[in-house]
């Protein structure tokens, strides 16, 4: 298990940040090119051969309930959906489009106010037309998630090949 709160790619992935692998650039571009992901500050912090870890820094403008300080559910949905999609894109080589077909999120408890949130997603099966991912959203400790998800993504291989 990782050291609590340690999500730096230079320490976890074994490559220097100034020369990341192509896969890291594919995933980072996916987050940066998403208007909603960009708006909430979604960033890629780590990846491996079978996973993606992303982060949204806690900010007051992302709070859904000012009385409790809990993040808006849409922020949690976005980090989970886009992280899961990034894991699928990496698993399929990053050369085809994908769209979310199904996203089930189990909210186990609220994320603690004032702390950044992370999502760790992995694509666990790639089929001819559909790929599947699972994700855990957590704060300091990945072993203590506040939400988990299972999702399915349609692969748009033919459309990308035709529209080139």
Structure commentary:
- The chain contains five helices and eight strands; from the N terminus they run αααββββαββββα.
- The radius of gyration is 16 Å and the shape is globular.
- The strands form two sheets. It has a six-stranded antiparallel sheet.
- With 164 residues, it is α+β, with helices and mostly antiparallel strands.
- Strand 3 and strand 4 form a beta hairpin.
- 29% of the residues lie in helices and 34% in strands.
- The longest helix has 19 residues, at 73-91.
- The protein has helices at residues 9-12, 22-33, 35-40, 73-91, 157-163, and strands at 43-47, 52-56, 63-65, 70-71, 97-107, 117-126, 130-138, 147-156.
- Helix 2 (22-33) packs antiparallel against helix 4.
Provide a brief overview of the structure:
With 164 residues, this protein is of the alpha+beta class. It has helices at residues 9-12, 22-33, 35-40, 73-91, 157-163; strands spanning 43-47, 52-56, 63-65, 70-71, 97-107, 117-126, 130-138, 147-156.
């Amino acid at each position: 298990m990782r050291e609590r709160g340690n999500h730096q790619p230079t320490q976890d992935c074994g490559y220097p940040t100034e020369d990341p692998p192509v896969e890291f650039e594919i995933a980072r571009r996916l987050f940066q090119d998403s208007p909603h992901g960009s708006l909430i500050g979604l960033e890629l912090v780590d990846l491996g051969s079978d996973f993606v870890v992303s982060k949204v820094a806690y900010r007051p403008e992302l709070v859904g309930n000012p009385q409790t300080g809990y993040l808006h559910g849409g922020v949690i949905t976005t980090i989970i959906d886009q992280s899961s999609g990034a894991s699928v894109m990496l698993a399929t080589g990053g050369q085809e489009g994908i769209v979310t077909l199904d996203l089930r999120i189990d909210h186990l408890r609220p994320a603690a106010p004032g702390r950044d949130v992370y999502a760790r997603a992995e694509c666990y099966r790639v089929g001819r037309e559909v790929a599947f991912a699972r994700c855990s959203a957590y704060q300091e400790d990945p072993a203590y998630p506040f939400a988990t998800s299972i999702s399915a993504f349609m692969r748009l291989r033919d459309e990308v090949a035709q529209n080139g």
